[in-house]
Amino acid sequence: MSRPDDGGFAFPVPHAIDGNWNKEPFPEYSGMSLRAYIAVHRPVPDAMPSQMGLALLGRPLPDQDQFPDTIEGHLAHTLACQQWWAAVSAAYSVMQADALIAALKAPANG
After folding, report:
1. How many CB atoms are located within 10 Å of the residue 93 CB?
2. What is d(CA 13, CA 16) in angstroms, rounded to the nearest whole number?
3. Residue 94 contacts by C-beta under 8 Å, 6 or more apart in sequence?
4. pTM of the shown model
């Protein structure tokens, strides 16, 4: 599987070599990728059906029946659900970032 286009550095830092400016950013100080920056700033819908999460992740929301009927089991189920929703949120944000990077690289219409 190939790596998705990360859009390059979000905040490239130009640098000089022997007094000449290099067009390539200085990788050690350029920070996160554009993909990560966009994903962090993409709003996630407040209400998202679990079917959308299933489509994004390829696995369903954890079922209560998978956990023991104890306080610890209920807490473990709650935590598993929170982890699942966090993964859904991340997948949604990255999907949005990938779409924006693709749109920015597409030829302009008109």
Report:
1. 19
2. 10
3. 35, 39
4. 0.74
The string of pLDDT tens digits covering residues 44-55 is: 888 889 999 999
Residue 16 lies in a domain: no
| pLDDT at residue 47 in the model | 83
- Kindly report the CA angle at 26 between 41 and 14, in degrees rounded to 5? 85
Domains held by the chain: number: 1
Q: Which residue type is seen at 6?
A: D
The residue written with tokens 């954890």 in the block is 62
Measured CA to CA, the distance from residue 109 to residue 103 in angstroms comes to 11
Q: Enter the tokens of residue 43.
A: 């709003």
> Does 89 fall in a domain?
yes
What is the chain's length? 110
Q: How far apart are the first and last CA of the chain?
A: 34
3-class SS of residue 81: helix
